[in-house]
Amino acid sequence: MNTDIINIIDVLHVIYFMLPAYLANMSALVFGGGKPLDMGVALADGKRLIGDGATWRGTGAGTCVGLIVGGLQGFISGSVLAGALTGLLLGLGALLGDAAGSFIKRRIGIERGRPAPILDQLDFVFGALLLVSPLVNLPLYYIVLIMVITVVLHLSANIVAYLMGMKDVWY
């Protein structure tokens, strides 16, 4: 029975830890638009560097949301500065990871809006964890748990948004 409580606590802990990244990623979609990060640049193969999906406004807004959420978490835990820095790194990392995922998709010929299973769900997680890694040392168990939880949350949120008519595709 104690194992179940520990697992539930671990699940809640990793969701709470990743909240700045999760909310930054969602905020970039809500507040995005405008000039793309790649400024319309295409590589020699004629494909865009990243595409229109990753924008300066979305990246800025999402990063600010990560910073604010992390700052609030830091206020709760007693260190606003540490929380804000963690939130900033998680938020910015999530958005850079998402942009890197778009870069990879363009290179392998997957158009914007088309699915790339696992990459679509975890690119922002890899970016967030990479950027925050100099500050926070997570055990491998937590990293795996973050990936599993993120895939479930990501697909669930997309399915709900699709059923509500907010998305054209369920993925």
Written account of the structure:
The chain has 171 residues and is mainly α. 69% of the residues lie in helices and 0% in strands. The protein has 5 helices and no strands. Helix 1 (2-31) packs across helix 5 and helix 2 (56-77) packs antiparallel against helix 3. The chain starts with a helix and ends in an 8-residue tail after the last helix. The model has no long low-confidence stretch (mean pLDDT 92). Pathway: Membrane lipid metabolism; glycerophospholipid metabolism. Catalyzes the formation of CDP-2,3-bis-(O-geranylgeranyl)-sn-glycerol (CDP-archaeol) from 2,3-bis-(O-geranylgeranyl)-sn-glycerol 1-phosphate (DGGGP) and CTP. This reaction is the third ether-bond-formation step in the biosynthesis of archaeal membrane lipids.
Give helix and strand order, one letter per element, not per position: HHHHH
Biggest sheet: strands, sense, closure? none
Number of helices: 5
The gross shape turns out to be globular
Structural class: mainly alpha
Count of individual beta strands: 0
**Overall pLDDT level:** 92
Gyration radius, rounded = 17 Å
Q: Oligomeric state of the chains?
A: single chain
| Low-pLDDT regions | none
**How much of the residues is beta strand, in percent?**
under 5%
Termini gap = 35 Å
Task: Specify the helix fraction band.
Answer: 55-70%
